[in-house]
Amino acid sequence: MNKKLDAFHLKVIAIVAMLLNHIGSGFRLFEYSDQLFFFTEFIGKLTFPIMAYLLVEGFHYTRNIKKYAARLAFFWIISIYPFHLLHSSNTPFSPTELVNNIFFTLLMGLILITLYGKTKNIILHILLVIAFSFATILSDWNLLGVLMIFGFYRIQNADLKKIVPPVYTVLIFLSLMVIVYLVAPGSVPWYELIAPLGILGTIPLLLNYNGQRGYSPNWVKWGFYLFYPLHMIVLILIRGMM
């Protein structure tokens, strides 16, 4: 099979999906069209699995884990306020309302797999996975994000590692949504029940990944990081003008 996607292609797909997702949530499209909002949510579910997989790839190839972690921490911190403003319309900043952004989830996942690889005690391994999963419970993609990162890291089979984590993440997502729906049907719109299926769209993309970095000059490398806070700031300004 001729695999045509490299890391550059995957990153472009991820940021386009992210942009659509944030347009949907930031502009509250669900107030105007359920179908349009569902589309932005469904496509948006491609973003984190791609980022999580490339994080693990970066972990295996980076020469300096500390610098990698510091880069994630820096963009987590500078994205805190834009993330809050975009997802909290007309709400003044308050630390009590803050939900950590995707870079925090990625950072916790990176620290988890780094520590996991340095220890051999099974009980400690279990405690590490539990601790770092719950550390992100108030973060974007919460504990499911860390569990997905761990799956991409821990599964050794080249194809299964691209299939199993998205599948079990969808199953957990859907199970939680169904439970909430059964307890309080009116609190879960139809699009929230089926939007997690968009995660499965990551599988053919990852299976078509050729393991190459692709086009990666420094401006592209840093541009992908900067896109996260900058696109949220732009969306906030556009929303304000509207």
UniProtKB/TrEMBL annotation:
Transmembrane helix is among the record's keywords: yes
Xref: InterPro entries: TraX (IPR008875)
Record key words, sorted: Membrane, Transmembrane, Transmembrane helix
One Pfam family here: TraX
UniProt protein name: Fimbrial assembly protein fimC
Membrane spanning residue stretches: 12-30, 36-56, 68-86, 98-116, 123-153, 165-183, 190-207, 219-238
Species of the source: Enterococcus ureasiticus
